[in-house]
Every structure is written in C-alpha cells, then in structure tokens.
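REQUEST FORM: STRUCTURE PREDICTION
Request ID: SP-0412
Submitted by: Lab K.M.
Chain count: 1
Length (residues): 96
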Amino acid sequence: MGNLDRRNFLKLSASTLVGITLGGTALHAVAQEVVKDDDPMVVAMKYVAKSTVDGANCANCMHVQGKDGEALRGCNIFPGKLIHAEGWCAAWAKKA
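STATUS: Completed
RESULT:
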C-alpha cells in the first residue's frame, strides 16, 4: 500500500510539473499580442507607437518590462500586451 501512495504522489508531481510548464508557455504566448490602436486602454492612455516627446519613450519608462534593446516589450500599463520601445503614453514616468 505504501508503494501505491508513492506511485500516486509521483504521478501527481509529474502532472503538476507539466501543467506549470505548459501554463507558463501559455502565459508567455498571451503576452505576445501587440497593443491595437482601437483598444480602449490605448486610447485612454494616448499611447502612440513612436514618441513625439523629446527624451521620453517606453524604453526609458519605469512601467516597461523586458530587456534593453528589445523593440517590443511588456508594460505594466497594458498587461498581457506588448508595446513598442519607441512608443509613449500619458503614464510615462522616467525610469530611476
């Protein structure tokens, strides 16, 4: 009976590991969609893909995520979406 419990535990552990791995992949895939111009949040935040404000763009904003040099990056203002590093929105705040 002890082996049966151990066997079930191992099956459950393996299933959980696969679920976590696939879940992480699914979340990463969701974050691959670039914001759309007609998205209500994009309109409300006055987001543009190319900044017209000197010295201010998404790449140097504290809300942006990802690595420097990436053209498309995640943003706390637009969760699950990608923004252009050269973009700008009304929530722009200089990265410390």
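NOTES: The chain is about 35% helix and 10% strand.
Reviewed by: T.R.
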